Amino acid sequence: MFADTIIETESLFTGAGAAAEPGAVAIAGDRIAYAGPKGGAFTWRGPDTEVRDYEDALVVPGFHDSHLHFFHSALYSSPLASNYLGTSEADYVAHLAPLAASRPEGSWLLAQGWREYRWDPPVMPSRESLDDAYPARPVALYSGDAHTLWVNTAALDALGITEESEPPAGGSYDRDGEGRLTGIIREAAAMELMPRITASFSDEEMQAAYCGFMEKLLANGITSVCDMSLMASPGLDFVRDDIYAALDAQGRLAVRVHMFPTLTDDMARLESMQKRFTGNRLRAPGFKQFFDGVSSQHTAYLAQPYANARFDGDRGRPTVEPETMRKLVLGAAKAGHAVRIHTIGDAAIHGALDIFEEARLLFGPLEHGQNCLEHLENFQPEDIARLAELDVLAAVQPPHITLDPGGPERDLGPDRIRWMWPFSTFLEKGVKMAFGTDSPVVDVNSMDVLYAAVARRDPRTHEPQGGWLARERISMADALRAYTLGSAQAAGRATELGTLEAGKFADIAVLDRNLLAIAEDEIQQTKVIATYVGGTLLYGE
Known about the structure:
The chain is an alpha/beta fold. Helix content is 29%, strand content 21%.
C-alpha cells in the first residue's frame, strides 16, 4: 500500500523528545502510515503519492483545545454578537453601536468580555448607562468570565425580572443603596437567562456561526476540541449535539468534537449520545460538573478566607453540596463514566480529589476515558502529587495566569499564590496536563496559549517581565505535548490522537517557524500555514 500524501520538513516534532528533526509523515487514508526520518518514508511513496515539502516549517500534531464552550465561542465570534473587553463603562456602551446597527431593529444586543477590574475606573457598571443609549431595546452583556450579566431595563422587562423578583439558588441580583436593581446579575441567576436571550437566533444562524468558528480553529492549527458544559443547571450546558449532528450529516464538521454534558442523577443523555455518536469526528467521552465559581468574584471555594475578605468567613462556597457531588461522581464511576470537574479554589480541588479517591477504591481505575479537574488555580501543596497518584488529569488554560493582573495577590495574599497554576511542578510530580482556553473567556489563539505557558507573561501586554511565578515556566516541548497529547488524554483518545505516529489520525499543524528553536518573544509572531484533519488539508496550502 502506498501513501496518498507524504509531508516532508526539516523540522518534525512527533511529540517525543525536546527538539524537532528532519523528517516525514506518510498519510494513507485518514491515518498516519509512517512518521520519522525522511528515509523511512521512501517505501510509502507510489506513483500517485503527492509529496509536499514544507522545507524548514515546523510540523506538529494538530492542537487540541481541552476546554472551551463551543456555542458561546461561535456566537461571540460571529456577526450575531460581540466580544469586547473595553476600557470603561462608557467605552463599552459606545462599542455596541455597530452591532446595534447591523442587527434587526428591536432584537437583543448580546456581547461578552467586559471585566470591570481592567477598566479605568475599575467599578461595576449599571443599567443606567445602557438605558440612556438603548431605552427600548434589550441589551445583555456577559462578563469575560461568563459568571456575571449586565443588562438594561428593557432586558429586565423582557425577562420578567422586577424589583420584587427573587434570584434562583446559587445566583444573585445586585441592588443599589436604595434597594433597586442595578442591572448586574450573578452566577446561576445570570447563566439561566442565556437560553431565553439566545432563543432569537435561528438554527441556520447558529450553524453558520459554528462553521465560522471552526474556520477560526483551523486557522490556529486546532484540529480537536472538548466542548464543556457551561452550567450545571438543567438545560444550561449548551452542549448542542443537535447542531453538531446536523453539521456532521452535511459533511461540515471540520474538527473533532468531544462533548461533555452535565453530570446529573439521570445519565441517560450522555449514554444516548455515546450510542449515537460513534464516528471519528463526534464523540461524547464523559461528564462535566462544577464544584465552585471564580476567585475574582470570591465564589471559588477556599480552605481559608480570602485575603481581602468582604465579610467574616468569606471563603467562597461549593456550587454543589459536597455530598451531592460525591453521589454523582460515584454513580458515574460505577457506570464507568469519566467526569471532569470545575475546581478553582483549593478546598474545591481537595474535596474533588477525595471523591475521586473514593471512587477509585470502590470501582478501580477507569477502563475508558479520563477523570480531570478543570482550571485548578490554587492548591494545598500536597494535593499536587495526589493528582498523579489518582490518575486525575489537570486541564488548565495558560492565558488565565495573567488574566487579572494583581488579582491573585489581592484575593489570596503572598503565601497562597506560590501554588497557583504550577505547571512545572505538575511535570515534576508526574501529573498529566492538558491545555485549553475556556473560550470565549480567552480567545482560541494557539500561539497565545503556548506563549503564556512558556513565558508566563500576558499575551496582550507581555507583562510581567521575567514571567509571573517564573519558577513554574515550562519548555516549549512540554507545552506542545500538553496542547496535543495531554488534551487527547483528557478526551480519552490518546491512542488515536495527540502525537504523530503510525496508526493515529493524520491531524497535523504546520507552522512557519520552529517554535522549539526561537526566542519567546517570537512565539506570537508564528503563523499556521497549513492544517490537516484526517489527512485532508482544510486550511492553508
